[in-house]
Write a structure and sequence with these properties.
There is one protein chain. The chain is an all-alpha fold. It has a domain of about 230 residues. The protein is about 55% helix and about 0% strand. It has 15 helices and two strands. Strands 1-2 form a two-stranded antiparallel sheet. Helix 4 crosses helix 10, helix 6 packs antiparallel against helix 14 and helix 12 packs across helix 14.
Length: about 350
C-alpha cells in the first residue's frame, strides 16, 4: 500500500499531527488496513497485515463489520442527542453508501501475496473496479430537513451537531476541539467509544516524534537499501529506493494514461495530508492495449518487489521497529496499554 505520509514529511500543524498519528501504520508500510474477521488466526507472519502491534495498540484492528456496527451505534446516540437539543436527525449508515468494497478488502487482507499475484499493487484493478461498482454517491437522509431551515436555523443546527466552529487566526495553528466540545457528534463518540488517551495533544506530539524516528531507523533504511539493490539486480531499468516508489510509478502511469498529472500528496488548508485520487466513475477511458501493457508491467514489477522484500526480510524489520515504537509509547504513556 502506498504511504500516505512518507519519510521526511513535514508536520505542519496539530491537526496534521493527529492525522499522521492515525495513519502511522500506513506510513510504516505495515498493517495499514487494520484487521479482519479471522485476525486471531493470522499467526506470526510479518507479511500478514493483521499482525500489527501498532494497529492493536491504537484500536485499528477491528474488522469492517465491527467498525460499521460501532459507527451505527454512534449514529443512534446522535439521533437521541439532537432530539434532546430540539432538532430532527436521522442516522446515517455510511457503510451502506456507495460501493461495497468489503469483499475486495477482505481478499487483500486475508492473503496479500495471492492478491498481489493477481492484481499487483492494485493500480489496474482500481481502474477495472470503476465499471464493477460505478460512481460512488452519498445520500444524506437529513438533507431535505436541513434545506428547509433558514440560514440562522441551519447554523444553529450544525452547531448542535458538530459544536461551534473554532476561530483560528491567520498565524495560528488549528487545534482539534475536545470531543465534548464537538456537539452531538463528539458526545456520541464519547458515549460509544469513551475518552481515548490519543486525544491528548502531548501524546500526539510525542507519538509523531517517535514515529518519525521509527521511519528513519537505521535498520529500516538499510533494509530499503538492500531491497533497492535486489531490485536493480532483477530489473536494471528501475530506480526505486523503496516499495512505495515502485507502487507510485504505476499510479503515475495510470494517471498519465487518463490525462491527469503525477500522483502527488498535498496538504489542505487545515494541514491534513490529502493524496490525489481519481473519482470512481469519473475517469477517462484507457486504450485496451495501453491497459494490458500497464497490467503486465505492474504484475512483473510486483513479483520482483515481493521477492526482494522476502530476500531482505523487510516485513520483519518493519515489524521489529513497529514493536519498539509501541513499547516506547506504552512506556511513556501507560494509559495507552489499557485501551
Amino acid at each position: 500500500m502506498t504511504s500516505l505520509a512518507g519519510p521526511g514529511s513535514h508536520v505542519a500543524s496539530p491537526r496534521r499531527r493527529r492525522a499522521l498519528a492515525a495513519l502511522a501504520i500506513a506510513s510504516l508500510g505495515l498493517a495499514a488496513c487494520g484487521g479482519g474477521d479471522d485476525a486471531a488466526g493470522a499467526g506470526d507472519d510479518p507479511n500478514d497485515p493483521r499482525n500489527s502491534p501498532l494497529a492493536e495498540l491504537l484500536g485499528f484492528d477491528a474488522s469492517p463489520a465491527e467498525q460499521r456496527a460501532r459507527e451505527l451505534e454512534v449514529q443512534q446516540q446522535m439521533v437521541a442527542c439532537m432530539r434532546d437539543e430540539g432538532w430532527e436527525y436521522q442516522a446515517v449508515d455510511y457503510g451502506a453508501q456507495g460501493a461495497d468494497f468489503s469483499a475486495e478488502f477482505e481478499e487483500q487482507i486475508n492473503d496479500p501475496e495471492a492478491y498481489g499475484a493477481k492484481y499487483g499493487y492494485g493500480v489496474v484493478r482500481s481502474y477495472e473496479m470503476q465499471d464493477e461498482f460505478g460512481s460512488v454517491t452519498f445520500d444524506d437522509p437529513n438533507q431535505d430537513y436541513v434545506e428547509a431551515l433558514d440560514g440562522d436555523e441551519q447554523q444553529a443546527y450544525y452547531q448542535a451537531l458538530y459544536g461551534p466552529s473554532p476561530e483560528v487566526g491567520a498565524d495560528e495553528e488549528f487545534v482539534m476541539p475536545a470531543l465534548e466540545d464537538q456537539g452531538c457528534s463528539g458526545k456520541a463518540q464519547l458515549a460509544v467509544n469513551g475518552e481515548s488517551p490519543l486525544n491528548d495533544p502531548d501524546m500526539q506530539e510525542r507519538m509523531n516524534e517517535l514515529f518519525e524516528d521509527a521511519q528513519n531507523d537505521p535498520s529500516v533504511q538499510q533494509a530499503y537499501d538492500d531491497w533497492a539493490a535486489c531490485m536493480r539486480d532483477a530489473d536494471p531499468s528501475g530506480d526505486w529506493t523503496s516499495p512505495d516508489d515502485a507502487a507510485n510509478e504505476f499510479w503515475n502511469r495510470m494517471n498519465e494514461l487518463q490525462g491527469f498529472g503525477p500522483f502527488e500528496e498535498t496538504v489542505d488548508s487545515g494541514g491534513v495530508v490529502v493524496a490525489d485520487t481519481v473519482p470512481l466513475g469519473g475517469a477517462p477511458a484507457i486504450d485496451e492495449a495501453d491497459l494490458d501493457e500497464l497490467r503486465a508491467d505492474e504484475l512483473a514489477t510486483w513479483k520482483i518487489d515481493w521477492a526482494c522484500q522476502q530476500e531482505v526480510d523487510l516485513a520483519q524489520v518493519r515489524r521489529d521497529v513497529e514493536q519498539r515504537l509501541v513499547d516506547d509509547l506504552v512506556d511513556e504513556f501507560p494509559e495507552l496499554g489499557g485501551q
